Amino acid sequence: MTDRLITHLRHLDIAVPDYAKQREFYTNLWGLTPVVEEPGLSFLAAEGSPEQYVVRLRQAEDKRLDLIALGAEDRASVDALAQRLATAGVQLVGEPGALQTPGGGYGFRFFDVDGRTVEISCEVQVRAHRRIEEQESIPVKLSHVVINSPNPERTRAFYEQHLDFSLSDTLFHPNLGEAMYFMRCNPQHHSLAIARGPHVSLHHASFEMRGIDEYMRGTGRLLRNDIKKVWGPGRHLAGNNTFSYFLDPHGNTVEYTTELELLDEDTWHPHLYDFTQPEVSDQWGTANPMDEFVAAESFNDPDRGVFVAPPV
Fold first, then answer.
1. In a domain, 132, yes or no
2. CDD domains, per this entry (predicted)?
3. Peptide bond preceding 233: is omega within 30 degrees of 0, i.e. cis?
4. String of b and e for 70-94 (b: at least 16 CB within 10 Å)?
5. Quick one: 39 and 150 in the same domain?
6. Same domain, yes or no, for 157 and 117?
7. What distances in angstroms separate CA 187 from CA 12, 152, 205, 298, one per listed residue?
8. How many domains does the chain have?
9. Torsions phi, psi of 23, nearest 5?
């Protein structure tokens, strides 16, 4: 098993112009809970997660991905990662120190090879969370984040070399080549995936539901409220997880999922899956076809936050 300094995915921070509309979507429709709020800033928790928050919303003139936050075991791990990155010439946003976000902790931020801001932290206070009940169709936790890169091979190499992520599986097209790398930092099939896209952007953020029934109830709630569905419901082959993709008010793709595969890392060997085969995209055959519409929505808008650290 790989000896990693990164332990898990913590949260995703996004900025949008219409903050009120975005907050309404993520709380009253998507099912997250506001825990700390300031003017133009909301920290939203998943009721089943010990993380202080899984999404942070910030009001800004431009839509952008503010940062992706990853957890580490302890201060020694945070310091070692900061030293490793700095030695390799990676640009740090700041040196390790006390965090000023809910739950506190110790951490630092840096720019990855594509210019998105990444935060690594430890000692963040655990939030009092609870068991999600049967038929309760709200997220248990943030499952994974998928990012677009015009050079996904380079991005994959960055996360493997500097942060010890491992490749779980790869999607490819017979004519276009490799299109998506599923990357893990623990036994979960993927906490991060890297997709080939025309520009740097957020591909989608995925939220784990309690089970199939809760996943379908959540999917139905979004459909009944006329939220634009991108793809699903269905079940992927890579990761063996269910999927229903929707657009938030600013065009970011968000996913309800459940049953993402847990791997035996000592015996796992990555697969190369041809996603032109229908069962690769959707084992059930219930989702709308993977077509140009699905792909175009997943490309999202070019990220305005490349190599620009968020102000908070």
1. no
2. BphC5-RrK37_N_like
3. yes
4. bbbeeeebbbebbeebeeeebeebe
5. no
6. no
7. 20, 22, 19, 26
8. 2
9. -65, -40
% the chain with pLDDT above 90: 96
Q: Contact, 37 vs 2, CB < 8 A?
A: no
| Mean per-residue pLDDT over the chain, rounded | 97
Strand order in the sheet with 41-45: 33-38, 41-45, 55-59, 6-16, 64-72, 117-122, 106-111, 97-98
DSSP type of residue 188: B
Provide the token pair at 158: 């960055």
The bridge status of strand 6-16 relative to strand 64-72 is: antiparallel
- Give residue-wise pLDDT tens across range 136-146: 999 999 999 99
DSSP label of 92: B
Interstrand relation of 177-184 and 41-45 (parallel, antiparallel or unpaired): unpaired
Q: Which residue reads 């580490």 in tokens? A: 72
170 and 194 Cβ atoms separated by less than 8 Å: no
Tokens of 27: 């709380």
CATH number for the domain harbouring residue 61: 3.10.180.10
pLDDT score of 294 = 87
Distance of CA 96 to the CA centre of its chain: 23
178, pLDDT greater than 60: yes
How many residues appear in the chain? 312
For residues 57 and 107, state if they share a domain.
Answer: yes
Is pTM beyond 0.90? Reply is yes
Find the domain containing 272 and state its range.
141-299
